[in-house]
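Tutorial sheet, problem 5. The two components below are modelled jointly, 584 residues in total.
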Amino acid sequence: MHWREGYIAVDWGTTNRRAYRMGAAQSSAMFEDDKGVMSVPPGGFPQAVAEIRQRLGDLPMLLAGMVGSNRGWHAAPYVACPAGLDEIAAKVRWVDDRTGIVPGVAQRSASSPDVMRGEELQAIGALADGLVAADALICHPGTHTKWIAMKAGRIETFRTVMTGEIFALLAAHSILADAMRGQATGGAQFAAGVREALGGEPLLSALFRIRARRLLGDGAEDAASRASGILIGSEVAAALAEFGPHRVAVIGRPALCKLYGAAIELAGGESFSIDGADAFLAGMTSLTEVLE
Amino acid sequence: MHWREGYIAVDWGTTNRRAYRMGAAQSSAMFEDDKGVMSVPPGGFPQAVAEIRQRLGDLPMLLAGMVGSNRGWHAAPYVACPAGLDEIAAKVRWVDDRTGIVPGVAQRSASSPDVMRGEELQAIGALADGLVAADALICHPGTHTKWIAMKAGRIETFRTVMTGEIFALLAAHSILADAMRGQATGGAQFAAGVREALGGEPLLSALFRIRARRLLGDGAEDAASRASGILIGSEVAAALAEFGPHRVAVIGRPALCKLYGAAIELAGGESFSIDGADAFLAGMTSLTEVLE
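Model answer (structure tokens):
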């Protein structure tokens, strides 16, 4: 396959997809829409994939993310840890001779089973671009945040934390929902929440205090930021205790990376941010170099 | 007021209400329905209260629970900790000369603000019935579980944990919802979840493993029980660490008391159960004796 002449890289998640035209011989282009895996009807993937080629060109294609899950197009079974570029490349699932689905990574362990699908490419991409070292701690914040310990250039172990999903559930459906309108920002209330969590306050108790303060007349606080601080602070405290001191590479959306960076700093750690889309494309590029 | 000749005690919560006819000179009777505070339309409380008297008799009435909140009939402001029977009785809000609303209890503290409304009566009732000592640790499991430290017969401090609400959110709306059908039971999966939490696993990480195990092919586990064990185990570990060794009085619905009792035992503690409805009525009885 002559990937260098041009190909399409697709990051296809549960609720949206991003498709990029890549390669030296083609002008770059991309689009993003809300046709996530869950919105594709049964049997609808061939047409949804054909649409991508109609928009970006009749090119070879690599797809990553939930498109390779059992709710996606074709299941691309997980590669076991430790997993690096070579292990992932070897397990690409070929739908036809120019269309491949990138596998996720699994930690097969009785005590700490875990899975990722999509984040592995960003970790590999950040490494390939020299943005993280071969031994590194990566945080990939999101609905299900991943903490990834890289060793000798491979994903050695990782841990998922449901921080983003719980934040969304609280904001949409909980007794705190009325108070949590608006986005979380990294101001004083966020920092207060992080400090509460770093001080060892149980998560589900610190969250209820947002409600208690309002009932007791201190209703002026920014509840979304406070809740975000409690949740992220709790996660950061546990991760730094588990993985030890590291300069954490935070890969993801810039606004969310900023919140995690602030929490890591309050916990006495150091961090730097890497744009998630850039890391994804770097990962796809390094994958095509191995598949060449 | 001659409470002994007969009165009505109402436990009026957010989503349902229970009303009891009490007193030596009257036969006892009760009803329960789903006319919780949130279902009463604006201005509808006088009629909703009149209905209770139509069903149980034209008697003096004491009401407790969310009916005294700012979403209820009339706000009965919180009594500050430490609070015992006398402090609560002194702050009953009289709507008319035979209809009173029992106040909740507040912990006014910059670092650990907290509120309860309804649970205080059960704690006072368990004490009045001699079921708990004047110095005791009470756990009141529910949507917002309360851990109450009693000292010299008064509520000295307490802590709310949103365990029940988070369990309900996970079961209804999360990525675990499909797996969490059915009630949590106190079997092997519950115990495994408790042990995971007691071992120090971060809550939101242990919960995700339920998902990971299913994706990795171990789909047979009872996810509702496992999630319940993780949540309750996490709560019990923190409470026993905070309040020290105690024989915990667990007051509430029998099925839920049983789960908490099992978790406390796995944590190396001891507990015994008290029926929540019995404790509520004992609290109301001791309150009428002070109000006499």
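Marking note: The mean pLDDT of chain B is 94. Full credit if you identified this.
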